[in-house]
Amino acid sequence: MTAARFAPRQRILFARSPHAWSLLAAAALGATTLCATEARASGLATARFGGEHGHPTTDNPTAIYYNPAGIALKPGTRIFIDGSLALRWMSYERPESAISSEVGTPEGARDANAGTARLFNTIAAPFAGVSSDFGTKFFSAGLSVYFPFGGQSRWKPNEKYRGSQDYPGAIDGVQRWHTIDGTLRSMYVTGAFAFNFAKIGLSIGVSGSAIRSEIDTIRARNSDGTDDLALADGTLKEGRSWLKASGWQGGFGIGAIWQWRDKLWIGASYTSRPNITGNMTLNGELRNVFGAAPVTPATPIELTQRYPDIVRLGIRFRPLQKLELRVFGDFTNWKVMDKQCVLDASVDGRKCDFAGADTALDNPTEFGAEGEGTKGVTQHLPRFWKPAGGVRVGASYFATERVELFAGLGFDSSAVPLQTLDAALYDANKMSFSLGGRFRLHKHLALGLTLTDIVYFKSDNRGKGVINKFQAPTRQPSADGIYKSNIFLTNLYLDVMF
After folding, report:
1. What is the pLDDT, as a whole number, of residue 150?
2. Main-chain dihedrals φ then ψ at residue 75, nearest 5 degrees
3. Which of 73, 194, 368, 404 is 20 to 30 A from residue 460's alpha carbon, by CA?
4. In the structure, what pLDDT confidence band is assigned to residue 16 with cuts at 50, 70 and 90?
């Protein structure tokens, strides 16, 4: 294979993730960390629509996302436009102990598969919504478009290997076996309606969403799941895997808010799994190049995975006219994200049900081989994620009638176990710190700004990772190492009221 075939960061073949859902990430096969959504327990998403006012008791149009009952709290019509800009730093230090073999990574090329990879990315996430009571005082409806999962990751190149004829793929960094470059976008178009029963202080709401998800990701890959650069005879072995897929899903949300004397608000909401069951199927194509083998046509594929449902609880309390206190907790059932599987769409009866999943983390050497429950599997990535939860507390001080100042503090647990952690879909326990303000520029217009620092706890899974111990086609190169990350989020919105 020539160096040209590995021309860095080009989409020809094969060169060059969040989460990803954030993820949602949405997580995507070999994709990047999902960024650019609410900072919830999943850790695969970072933006917060509405800043510190993104809450299960909020009364602005972001309630369409957090709790649809909120659009019935205030009379009139509101237009809400929110832009989030996330600055993301991350490093991954891969030790030499993670290298598959001394033969595959010869002496003198160890730094092609061991060392530190870094990235710095800027990611934007918009929200636009409108709600109105149409003059009824008891019925409200709203519509919004937003991107709760979306973004990309581009890692800094390993400049030592720029132009290398021996190991051209090494320029893409030591993390390349799990991610080189990738994009993930999930667009939500959500409608909602709500009813306000003023006599008892209760609002209830329902929402429905059409979801468009798109994935485009590339990573280094060998057919045997190793990180070998070359064969024993020196022939180049390292290859590339490029996946593109997209699809539509649907979902719904329900919620309720109880209000007492404009002093206390208690809200709860539930957001369903995509397609209710959580099952997602994205259709697209996969291209693999292995070593010096000839380039073959793209394979039509199905990418299957499952996304969670979310429960949110929130309380707002105004003990004094100039003081508001907030508590926000959520639970995301990421346990349903047990695997991601790429299936050959041309194979009838294709399925991806690997035996022994319940004991895979404790007994990895026996897991991952194809059997009676599998057919047409091209790639299989076990995730075995776990439920995650988070809590935020915040306070607002109303300095004047036009100026509100606020601060917040939060903690979110990780959804990703150390055993299956990798650079593509990174998560860890994290703290968040927020400062900002809301400024009434006109009786019909307010401007809000929130600055949030999300500090990830360092993750060290050396000797704990198991993905390199699974059997083919599940086996992947070791992702053991030390992970560090930090996200700084600027959240700016306009709130128009009539």
Report:
1. 62
2. -75, 165
3. 368
4. very low
**Torsion sign, CA atoms 466, 33, 239, 102:** negative
Q: How far apart are CA 220 and CA 218, in angstroms?
A: 7
Q: What is the mean predicted confidence (pLDDT) over 452-468?
A: 96
Q: Taking residues 8-36, what's their average pLDDT?
A: 32
CB 44 within 8 A of CB 461: no
Handedness of CA 483, 173, 384, 488 (dihedral sign): positive
CATH (one of 2.40.160.60, 1.10.8.60, 3.40.50.720, 3.40.50.450) for 3-497: 2.40.160.60
Q: Which two tokens stand for residue 420?
A: 């299956």
Task: Give CA–CA dist 310/41, Å, rounded.
Answer: 10
Tokens describing residue 150: 């979306």
Spell out the domain ranges in the chain: 3-497
Answer whether residue 53 shows pLDDT above 60: yes
Tokens 């602005």 identify what position?
60
- Of the candidates 280, 253, 286, the residue with the CA atom closest to the CA atom of residue 268: 253
